[in-house]
Amino acid sequence: MPRLIGVRKINIAIFISGTGSNLKNLIRFSRKKNSKFNINLIVSNNSKAKGLILAEKYKITKKIFNYKNLSFSEIKILDELKKYKIDLICLAGFMKILRKNFIVKFQGKIINIHPSLLPKYKGLNTHQRAINNNEKFAGCTVHYVNSKLDSGKIIIQKKVKILKNDDSKKLAKRVLKQEHVLYPKAIKKVLSNL
After folding, report:
1. Would you please indicate which residues are annotated as catalytic (active-site) residues?
2. What is the CATH number of domain 113-194?
3. What are the start and end residues of each CATH 3.40.50.170 domain in the chain?
4. Strands (DSSP E) along the chain, which ranges?
5. CATH number for the segment(s) 1-107
6. 144-181 pLDDT tens trace
């Protein structure tokens, strides 16, 4: 893909553990004519992650780390990030918590998408928890990653109305649609500050 003369595209690594629907969406965005970023690397802790099929389909380098030895895996990942000149890490359904030592080395350059309106409902089962508490809105948040779970500075959020007949699956589906809109916007915002 030809690059804009004199303007280097930002190199992104995407970390996944599962289906990779946000990954697929970001790949689509990275291929657009006026995109400011390339996806150079896909990292996963799960060799059976469906999202890895996308790496083959779009010819993006993929690396799988089993995370049995946390510090060893993170050292290896940092080597790969250096090798592929990664400027920004995007977590997209990555089900491992990065350690403080790792985060410090990429301070302000790791972002995550979370399926709730943070600071509410950090962690898992966000949709069911929102429904159980009779919330009027659920949503999604893109935030910077720090050493506390889902606690980094918020970049951008999107509300999704909880409907009367919603269960967690129906709600999750609608929130995911908004995640696909929100994540590219958040990356754009972050890139303007890099």
Report:
1. 114
2. 3.40.50.170
3. 1-107, 113-194
4. 10-16, 37-44, 61-64, 88-91, 110-114, 137-144, 154-161
5. 3.40.50.170
6. 999 999 999 999 999 999 999 999 999 999 999 999 99
Q: What is the pLDDT of residues 32-88, one digit of tens each?
A: 999 999 999 999 999 999 999 999 999 999 999 988 888 899 999 999 999 999 999
pLDDT in tens, 102-125: 999 999 999 999 999 999 999 999
Do 126 and 114 contact (CB within 8 A), yes or no? yes
Cβ within 8 Å of residue 94, ≥6 positions away = 15, 16, 17, 43, 44, 45, 112
Q: Residue type at 173?
A: K
Q: What are the DSSP E strand ranges found in 92-144?
A: 110-114, 137-144
When computed from its CA atoms, the radius of gyration of the chain, rounded to whole angstroms, is 17
Tokens coding 27:
């790949």
With contact defined as beta carbons under 8 Å apart, do 12 and 38 qualify?
yes
**Residues 142/156, Cβ–Cβ less than 8 Å:** yes
